[in-house]
């Protein structure tokens, strides 16, 4: 007898559960619809005044046995889930997302097609110091079949008393040297107002880690069609990184490449912590090429080769590393730049590992 009654009650409970599922999903559909209407009107999805009204309605109509605070707590979870549902839709709609574009973005730079499956190197000094310094590095790059010459002309230094870079003069040096050796120039720009000037010299605008959320700079870089290499912020989540890239794309510039360069953690053995798993995550979630900067992530010369191998093995579209003819006298990052012999050795070992396919021209005998 008791068992039958239990069965009966359970059946009724199941019915109610099913109705709740149906009702909650009906509610979700309405909430999504409201989200769409709000977004069309440019309104914020989260509306605390409206939420307060709904919570008040619960308290006015609650006949128990649940306490009003309990019901309000449950509803708060439903509100939150509905908002997340709306945000998921938003995420799906991001221009950087694979959901928006299934095929990989290929960025054309000086006849090179970055993101086409061939993995590439970006190398060069931390800062442009002189024509001779850049020329020496560029010759080494050319010799190794590396096509992308980097060098900082505007340096975002932690201390205002440190070398700030040569500015436009540095960009001129990069351009002259790159033209001499047939290389492409990548250089960081820090001021949105400098973008129109910079595009006369660079093939790729770099936006540095410290400026990843400099939204005016992102918008300025998005307003030209020069390719952009966007570096991950020092403490940026992958989602924030993707949204920073979205700023550039949303302004019309589709030629965006991402660069994982290590993030701040409590670990002190390296300058930053290379978030290697960010690479496959970014490759899955976005259609943009992804680079790994092994110099600024590790801050250690002895880790450049193993981390570069890891980056190539995990599917990065390329690796960035700093090279200086005489790192001991470099005006910035002297501890981790490779000299030219070390760079040649680095390249040889990458090739030996089978992970890197050289772009060196084969000289036919
Ligand atoms: C750089 O690449 O020169 C640089 C300053 O790197 P980051 O912005 O990643 O620190
Ligand atoms: Mn540097």
TrEMBL record:
InterPro entries: Aldolase_TIM (IPR013785), Chorismate_mutase_GmP-bac (IPR010954), Class-I_DAHP_synthase (IPR052899), CM_dom_sf (IPR036979), CM_II_prokaryot (IPR002701), DAHP1/KDSA (IPR006218), DAHP_syn_2 (IPR006268). The keyword Transferase applies. Keywords: Coiled coil, Transferase. One of its GO terms (biological process) is chorismate metabolic process. It comes from the Bacteria. Residues 1-90 form the Chorismate mutase domain. Its EC number is 2.5.1.54. Residues 3-33 form a coiled coil. The keyword Transferase applies. GO terms for molecular function: 3-deoxy-7-phosphoheptulonate synthase activity; aldehyde-lyase activity; chorismate mutase activity. PANTHER family: PHOSPHO-2-DEHYDRO-3-DEOXYHEPTONATE ALDOLASE (PTHR43018), PROTEIN AROA(G) (PTHR43018:SF1). This is 3-deoxy-7-phosphoheptulonate synthase. It comes from Alteribacter keqinensis.
């Amino acid at each position: 007898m008791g068992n039958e009654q239990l069965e009966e009650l359970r059946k009724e409970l199941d019915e109610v559960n099913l109705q709740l599922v149906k009702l909650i999903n009906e509610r979700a559909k309405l909430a999504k619809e409201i989200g769409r209407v709000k977004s069309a009107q440019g309104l914020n999805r989260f509306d605390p005044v409206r939420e307060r009204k709904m919570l008040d309605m619960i308290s006015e109509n609650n006949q128990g046995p649940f306490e009003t605070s309990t019901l309000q707590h449950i509803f708060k979870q439903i509100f939150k889930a509905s908002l997340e549902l709306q945000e998921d839709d938003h995420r799906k709609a991001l221009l950087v997302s694979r959901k928006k574009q299934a095929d990989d973005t290929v960025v054309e730079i000086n006849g090179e097609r970055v993101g086409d499956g061939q993995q590439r190197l970006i190398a060069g000094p931390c800062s442009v110091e002189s024509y001779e310094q850049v020329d020496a590095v560029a010759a080494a790059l050319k010799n190794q079949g590396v096509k992308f010459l980097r060098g900082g002309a505007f340096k975002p230094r932690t201390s205002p008393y440190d070398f700030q870079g040569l500015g436009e003069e540095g960009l001129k040096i990069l351009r002259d040297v790159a033209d001499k050796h047939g290389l492409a120039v990548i250089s960081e720009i820090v001021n949105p107002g400098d973008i129109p000037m910079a595009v006369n010299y660079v093939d790729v605008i770099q936006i540095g880690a410290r400026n990843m959320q400099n939204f005016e700079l992102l918008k300025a870089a998005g307003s030209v069609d020069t390719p952009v290499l966007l570096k991950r912020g020092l403490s940026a989540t992958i989602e924030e990184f993707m949204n920073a890239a979205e700023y550039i794309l949303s302004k019309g510039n589709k030629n965006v490449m991402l660069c994982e360069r290590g993030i701040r953690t409590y670990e002190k053995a390296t300058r930053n912590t290379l978030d290697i798993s960010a690479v496959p995550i970014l490759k899955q979630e976005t259609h943009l090429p992804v680079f790994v900067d092994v110099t600024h992530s590790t801050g250690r010369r002895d880790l450049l080769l193993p981390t570069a191998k890891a980056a190539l093995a995990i599917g990065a579209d390329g690796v960035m590393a700093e090279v200086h003819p005489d790192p001991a006298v470099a005006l910035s990052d002297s501890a981790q730049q490779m000299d030219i012999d070390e760079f040649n050795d680095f390249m040889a070992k990458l090739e030996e590992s089978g992970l890197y396919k050289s772009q060196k021209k084969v000289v036919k005998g």
